[in-house]
Predict the structure.
Amino acid sequence: MRVKALALFVVTLAFAASAWATDKETLIYNFNNYTGDGYYPYSGLVADKAGNLYGTTQSGGANNLGSVFELKLSGGVWNETLLYSFAGGTTDGEYPEYSPLVFDSAGNLYGTTQNGGSSCNCGTVFELTKSGSKWKETVLHAFLGSSVKDGYLPQAGLSFDTAGNLYGTTQYGGLNNQGSVFQLQPSKTSWKYKVIHSFNAANGGAYYPVGGITQGADGYYYGTTYYGGFAYNAGTIYRLFQARNAWVAQNVFYFLEGGDGVYPDSSLAIDSKGNMYGTTYYGGSGESCGGGCGTVYKLTAGKNNAYTQSVIYSFQADDKDGENPYYGAGVTLDANGNLYGTTYFGGKGTQNAGTVYELKVSGSSYKESLLWSFDTFSGDGYYPRGGVILVKGNVFGTTYAGGSHGAGTAFELKP
């Protein structure tokens, strides 16, 4: 573990924060690829009950294979602690990418790495447990790849159900090498791993999940696939449930071409009424992107398990709006039903460096506003690949690149 508490570092960080403190955005941390720090944060952040922030970097750390970090506010300055550096090889994961971390009820952290862990370099599921001031990492599962019908290359974040079981997806692998859903069941001393669904593209089936699993209040488990569907291969929304000790998968919505949005690339957010929200990478009514600039959509359950999809917003780009919400970013709901998220490209001006947006409920519709447009030339972060979280009414997230060292940032926005 390494705590950055040197006076010079604090002064530098304070200067960077003050230089980028506007009435909205503050860069709370600049990752540094020259000091053994982690860098290139692909995923978003997660907060503990005290408001401390946690995340991963795709590169950097002691072995340049990625890291897990903590950001803690003290005296008006955010200080970083590097909690863990991945070691790679056959015994540890390497390169955590788009998967954000998740807490359990005891305060342990869980996540995935896209590579490492076994001879096939297929990725891992890991746990970080805190003992005193130190964190210990345990690999809960090392993926073995399609040769043994296991999944591989997990990309989306993990989630817990109400019974404490852990769920995730792999983009590839499974029985048909087209992706899988897995479950980890806890016991007193270990976790039991099993593949509960293998995707299959045959007959219009769903495949290549880049989003994770979300449990609904109805007891079903919902997710998205980037491809699949009978007509246009534009992606699906599916659900999983258990019947007679077997897992059953059903596709509940097929995306069509054009205005519906195509290629759903995020996990789903579910509100108290059971409505589901997500993003598509392309499609929608935005004309400046050719195939559409991406969408935010809502899925509403009706009678007889019929679902109705509506496009809440189509990104427009063209130097005035966001473009292409990135893999796994998705949306975050606040208590009033407003939505927040990021786009990888677009934004006001000519930088095309990405945005943070808000979709505010307005009667039966939503009104979009850009909370921030990132800037590639002035020391700001740019290209947000992860989503955002809300802590005490403020918006927090990361950018993959930019900042004072060009290695990515963590930022705060005050809407």
Observations:
- The first helix runs from residue 7 to 19.
- The first strand starts at residue 2 and ends at 3.
